[in-house]
Structure formats: structure tokens, C-alpha cells
Amino acid sequence: MATNNPGTAQPDDDDVIDLRKLWVTLMRHKWGIITLPLLVAMLVYLYVSTLTPIYRGTSTLLIESDRGNVVGIQGVDSMAAGREYLQTQFELLKSRGLAEKVVRDLNLTDHPEFDPEQQEPPLIDLAALTDWRGWIRAIGLDDMISVTQPEELAPNELTDEQRFERVVSAFRGRVTVEPRRNTQLVDIQVEMADPQTAAEAATALANGYIERQLQARLDMTEQATGWMSDRMAELKEQLKQSERKLQAYVEKEDLIDMDGVTTVEGSELSQLNSRLVEARQALARAENQYQQIADVTDASWREQATVPVVRSNKLVSDFLAEEAQARAKVDELSQRYGPRHPTMIEAQNELNSATESLRNQVRQVVASIEQKYELAQADLNSLKQAFENNREAIREVQSKEFRFQELQREVETNRTLYNTFLNRLKETTATADVQDANARVVDDAVVPRGAVKPRKARITLISAVLALLGSIGLALLREQFDNRVRGSGDVEDKLGLPMLGLLPLQKKRMERKQIARLYSSDRDRAFSEAVRTIRTGVVLSGLDDPHKIIVVTSSTPGEGKTSLVSNLGAALGQMERVLVLEADMRKPTFRRIFDFDDDRFGLADVAAGNATSEQAIQSFDGMDVMACGTLPPNPLELLSTRRFTELLEKLATQYDRIIIDAPPVQAVSDPLVLATQASTVIYMVKSDATPVPLIRKGLERLAEVNAPLAGIVLDHVDVKKSRKYGYGYGYGSKYGAEGYYDYYGYSSAQR
């Protein structure tokens, strides 16, 4: 038997946004979503309408990176052109010093915009409403709590200096410097309530900046001239002292070569050092040749002749060639003549003579190499001895040379520095009276015609959009925390069970008895269609193994399980033999619904053995009904008895379907016992009412006893509202309240 395990089903991908569900949520809260932005927009518009219009005066300034010196000589305050330089000038335009100059020039301390005594109080003062100090003063606690800050003193309580500083700070807050992209142009903007003053202030800032730059450059030039004059005297004296020290050293050490610091003794040592280097090189060459013949000194002259250094000798090479020629001649003649032939004897004598000359020359070359090596060693040793004997003299010469170079560098450094300052002083003096500004005014500020603040439409629109987003967020947040079940989507997502169907909400007030027998009366076509849908779901879910015993329960009382039991029994009774049992022995309702006599036997009586099933069963609306009967003292024990189980088995042989109305799961344990004997269990949920955690807890209790859950049936569903919000439960949405059967022409008897 298939069993559905309840759980908290989640979408396959949590990152996927269900647009349909989002739209349904927004439509459900549409009036709140619409009302909040409209209300906010209205309030914001009323508020911004009370604000004072602000005008913006703009002057345009060209700031030149190259300061364009008239005489073509670089200025003293040279600064590398670039982004950093321009950024520095922008900050200077917003500096306090420049703002103070404009405030003084325009006498802004007496301007109504900066003088609170000349200002009218605002119609709506948000700052006052949000200022806690004002509330403390209003309730009279300012005597006990000091809430007045120095910047909050009234104008008549401030000194002139404090008033001036307050105006300067306020004015700086109204100044904006906007550089134009990819240019050296900058717009100086001043925002004020008085358009004329705004234009004058922007122009005054531009002109004041130029004046301050000219004055600053003139001051820097004068300061640099004075400093360089004092520095020139110091440098001149330093140069003279270094020259005197160099001259005194030359005379003291008897230096005759001013370029290389060379004395007579130093020249000799230099020559000795050069000879020592040459001797080392000569010894290296001689040693190289000697090493080649060292291994063949005791060998024959013929082996010595094979050494490369010997063979490279020209005479040896020539004698080798003569010997080879003579030997070739002997070999040739030996083919024709005998050894005693005169021609042969003459050729042999020539060969012997050539060999003897070669032997003598090889021995002479070997002896020459040995002699040259010995002489090179002796020469090097002699020079080393001479050099060692004069080492102290060499060190003294080197010391003199280092000292001379040090004094010479000092003189050159002082002379270069002195000449640099001299030229710089001449340039600065020449340009002292010829200073130009690094900026010029491109456009003077004109009196603005229209206000730039407040932008009523933009502020209102932004406020409305933000309020709309906020209201949407609140709606989504409210929906997120709403733990009730509204439709099939909630059933599957939140409960993890299929939805068998629903029972529509009855708009007209009806008695419980009427609702329980509404299917039989056929007064509500939509309700009847809903019951048929549930009937179809129950039948289809048990095609292979029909559900013989069906238990209907819920989480709490009042969720419509009794109405489903009676109406589903009537619907199934049209096709099968059906028995409806009232197993809710705590609060039975069948007597009132089906008009049973108070003394009529019921399920409790039959299970206890006090009556037969025939005595307790009565037919209604095409089905058999067995009410509770006499209330037992302990219903749970009665339902757990073997007699009750045997009763169900007996009744199952007599009926096609047995539908049991069980108590709520959260109230008692009776439905858990009944679920163990059921073929399937239908769980009733009241739409938009029962909390999901409570439903899950009930489903978990059923799962603990392995109850075969078929699915969920929603009760009290507002079909019109659900269809409006896009739930679409699959019936009546296309064909109206008349339903599927009326569309195809079936009568009530044929359904």
C-alpha cells in the first residue's frame, strides 16, 4: 500500500523565482501596495511645496596647468601639471580663506539668508520635529538638563567673530566646484535663495581666486628672493674656503700634476707597476710554452718535434719539410736502384743531412723555451721585490690622490651650487614685477531664472517609488511569515503532500446540517463539483488496490471533516455500496445532521457488543450511516479492542467503501489507532486558517504510525478570490458554477 510521507517540500532550486506566485502575492496585497505610495507622494509633495526655492549662480573658470610666464622663465613656485595640480586648485576654490574674502566683499553677514532675525519661520520644520532638545525645552526640563550647544546660541548671543564664522561655514556649504570632463574648465556654483546674490557670489569666488593666486605668487617671489640672497652669501664663502683648502694641499704635498695628482715618486711607482703587469703577462706566455715541453724534456728529439710550440717554429717547419722531401726521394729511387748505387748513396746523404739539421734545430728551440721561461721568472721576481720595497710609497701616493680628488669635488660642487643660485636669483629678480595668473574667467555668472531646488516632481516621484518598493517588500515579508495554507501550491510546497481537492466556502449563512448534506440537495453546483473531484481523486489513487477503509481527520475541530465525510459518502454512494462511520466519540454530530433518535444504537454500542450492526445502521442519501451511539467512557480503549477490528473486517466484506469520521489528530490519539486499520487517510485543512506548523505536527503523528496518507483536502476555500489571484484549482474556472457536467449536458441523475 502506497504511503505518502509528509515533509516540508522545497522547490528543486531555491534560487528560482516563481513569478506566478510573486504576482499572486502582489495582487493579494494590491490595495496596500497602491495606497502607501500615493499617501507618501501626497505628503512629500505637500512638504516640498513649503520649501524655499534655491537658485544656482554659475561662473566658469579656466585653470591653466602651464602658468604662461611672460618672459619665458620658469617661476619659483613651479608645480608639475597634471591631475594632482588641478585637484589642488579645486580644493583652493573651496577653501575657507577664499570663502571669508567673499563673505567680507559681499557683506553676507547682514544678508537675510544668513541672518536668522530676518528670516520667516518655516511652515513645516522637520528639524525641529526631530530635535530631542526642542522637546526637552517644550516640556520644561531644560532647567534641569543642559541642552544648548555653542552653535545653537541665538544670533544676539553670539560675538561678531562667531557670527562671521557661522556665515562662512554656511556659505561654504553652498559652494560646489564641478570640473568639466576632459578639460581644464571648472564651474563654480553657489546655491542661494536670492538669485542675484547667488550670481554675485559665484563671480566673486572666481575673481577672488585669481586675486589670491596673484598675491600668493608675488609673496612667494619676494620670499624666495630674500632667501636666495642670504643663501648666496653663504655659498660664496663656502666656495672660497674650499678653493683655499685645495690650494694649500697642493702646495703642501708638492703636487705637480693637477689632473691626476702625480708626484715624481708617484710617476716612478706607476711605471714600475706597469712593468710588473707586463712581466706577469710575459711569464704567463713563457710558462704556457714551457708546460708544453716539460713532459718531453727527457724524450727523444723526434718526440720533442711533435710538440705544437716546437712545430710552430719556422725553421723546424722548414727542416721537417726538407726531411720529408728527402725521404720521399729516397723511397722513390729505392724502387729503381740498389743501396750502393751512386744516385742512391747521394739521396741517402741528403736525407741524413736534413735529419741532422732538424734534430739540431729542435734541440735549440727546446733550449730556447726553457731559457725564456727562466728569464721571465727571474724578471718577475726582481720586479716584485722592487714593488714590495716601495709599497709604503705607493700607499702614500694613493692617499694623496684620494684627498686631492675629495677637495677637488668639494670645490666643483660649491661652484655649481653657487652658479645655480646666482642664475636663479637673476631670473627671480627679473620676473618679480611680471606675474600672471594661472586662471582666467571664461564666463561670468548670470542671474538664474529658474530654481534648481527643490525638484518637486523628482522628489515626489522618488519618494513614491521608494514607498512602492517598501510596500512591496512589506507585502512579500508579510507573505513570507504567513504560515497558513491557501491553495494547492501551498499544500505541495509547505506540506509535501498532493491535494485531492477542496470544498468551496459557502457565502450564504447555512446550518451545519445543511452543509453536511449539501451534495445530496444539489443546491450548490460548484460544491457538488468539488465533491466529485475529491471522489475521483480517491478512486484514482486506489485503482490497483481500491481503498476499502477511508479515515478522514484534521488538525483541530471545525476544519470540515464531518462535512467531507457525509458529502463524500453521498458521492461515492451513487456508484458503490458505502458505509459512513462516526468514530468521533468525544463530540459526535451525526445525530443532529441525520436526525437520529437519541436512543438509537451506534458504533460504540456495536463495538461493545451491546447491539448488532443492523440495529445501528440507517440509510441516508444513497449511503448507510452508523452514528456514534452511546458515548463510551474511554473511546481510545474501545477503538483499540479486538472486537472493533473484527467489526471493521466484517463490515468491509459487506461494503465497497467505509468512510470513518475520526477526531482531530491534535486533540486525541483516537485517529492514530484508526489510521493503522485504514486503507488510506484524508487530511482536512481549513484554508487560510490553520497554521502550517500545527498541520505538520499532525501529519508527523500520523507518519509515526505509518498512516497511508492519500493527500490533503482544503475546506472553506473562497473560490472566486482564489481564481482571481491565480490559484486555478481546476474546476469551475472555465465553465462557471454549473460545472463540467452541465457543460456536457448531464443531468443530476446521470452524474
From TrEMBL:
<dbReference type="InterPro" id="IPR050445">
    <property type="entry name" value="Bact_polysacc_biosynth/exp"/>
</dbReference>
<keyword id="KW-0829">Tyrosine-protein kinase</keyword>
<dbReference type="GO" id="GO:0004715">
    <property type="term" value="F:non-membrane spanning protein tyrosine kinase activity"/>
</dbReference>
<keyword id="KW-0418">Kinase</keyword>
<dbReference type="InterPro" id="IPR003856">
    <property type="entry name" value="LPS_length_determ_N"/>
</dbReference>
<feature type="domain" description="Polysaccharide chain length determinant N-terminal">
    <location>
        <begin position="17"/>
        <end position="106"/>
    </location>
</feature>
<feature type="coiled-coil region">
    <location>
        <begin position="232"/>
        <end position="296"/>
    </location>
</feature>
<keyword id="KW-0067">ATP-binding</keyword>
<comment type="similarity">
    <text>Belongs to the CpsD/CapB family.</text>
</comment>
<keyword id="KW-0472">Membrane</keyword>
<keyword id="KW-0997">Cell inner membrane</keyword>
<feature type="domain" description="Tyrosine-protein kinase G-rich">
    <location>
        <begin position="406"/>
        <end position="479"/>
    </location>
</feature>
<dbReference type="Pfam" id="PF13807">
    <property type="entry name" value="GNVR"/>
</dbReference>
<feature type="domain" description="AAA">
    <location>
        <begin position="548"/>
        <end position="682"/>
    </location>
</feature>
<dbReference type="InterPro" id="IPR027417">
    <property type="entry name" value="P-loop_NTPase"/>
</dbReference>
<feature type="transmembrane region" description="Helical">
    <location>
        <begin position="31"/>
        <end position="48"/>
    </location>
</feature>
<keyword id="KW-0175">Coiled coil</keyword>
<dbReference type="GO" id="GO:0005524">
    <property type="term" value="F:ATP binding"/>
</dbReference>
<keyword id="KW-1133">Transmembrane helix</keyword>
<dbReference type="Pfam" id="PF02706">
    <property type="entry name" value="Wzz"/>
</dbReference>
<keyword id="KW-1003">Cell membrane</keyword>
<dbReference type="GO" id="GO:0005886">
    <property type="term" value="C:plasma membrane"/>
</dbReference>
<dbReference type="InterPro" id="IPR025669">
    <property type="entry name" value="AAA_dom"/>
</dbReference>
<keyword id="KW-0547">Nucleotide-binding</keyword>
<protein>
    <recommendedName>
        <fullName>non-specific protein-tyrosine kinase</fullName>
        <ecNumber>2.7.10.2</ecNumber>
    </recommendedName>
</protein>
<feature type="coiled-coil region">
    <location>
        <begin position="344"/>
        <end position="410"/>
    </location>
</feature>
<comment type="similarity">
    <text>Belongs to the etk/wzc family.</text>
</comment>
<dbReference type="InterPro" id="IPR032807">
    <property type="entry name" value="GNVR"/>
</dbReference>
<dbReference type="InterPro" id="IPR005702">
    <property type="entry name" value="Wzc-like_C"/>
</dbReference>
<keyword id="KW-0812">Transmembrane</keyword>
<dbReference type="Pfam" id="PF13614">
    <property type="entry name" value="AAA_31"/>
</dbReference>
<keyword id="KW-0808">Transferase</keyword>
